[in-house]
Design brief:
4-stranded antiparallel beta sheet; 7 strands
Length: about 150
């Protein structure tokens, strides 16, 4: 066999191998979860009824949604939580809407006493979504809402 034929064959095998490996990597590469249609609100206590801070969003991932963690904080505090910080906060309640998507809701009860201590003004919501395959998506500013008295 001539050297040209041998070199051409080796190059051809390398190219086919690279294309196959690239396709394999793309087929098995995990995707980050997505957090969409997020909204937050504050409802002040009224009469005998407690108020609440709420956040809702649709979360998707090709492997499914394992959990969504949520924290609300006043913008004026310049808190700036990280993904690591959100591993230790409350989880939202997620209801599957398909194999890949869930509608997630977070509600925090606000008593009259708690409401009196809440800082007035703009608040942010930070979210950490975790997929069934372990991929995560951190959204530092997923939604804003106003706290008023």
């Amino acid at each position: 066999m001539s050297k040209r034929v041998l070199v051409s064959s080796v190059i051809g095998v390398a190219v086919v191998g690279a294309v196959a490996a690239g396709g394999f990597a793309v087929a098995f590469a995990g995707t980050q979860p997505t957090v969409e249609s997020g909204s937050a609100a504050y409802v002040a206590p009224s009469g005998k009824d407690a108020g609440k801070v709420s956040y809702t969003a649709d979360v998707s991932d090709d492997s499914g949604v394992r959990e969504v963690r949520v924290i609300a904080w006043p913008v004026s505090t310049k808190l700036n939580p990280t993904a690591t910080d959100l591993q230790f906060v409350d989880t939202a309640t997620c209801s599957p809407t398909s194999d890949e998507t869930a509608h997630c809701t977070y509600d925090l009860k606000v008593t009259r006493q708690r409401a009196a201590r809440l800082e007035q003004g703009t608040w942010q919501v930070s979210v950490l979504a975790t997929a069934e395959d372990g991929d995560t998506k951190f959204v530092p500013r997923a939604a804003t809402f106003e706290v008023t008295r």
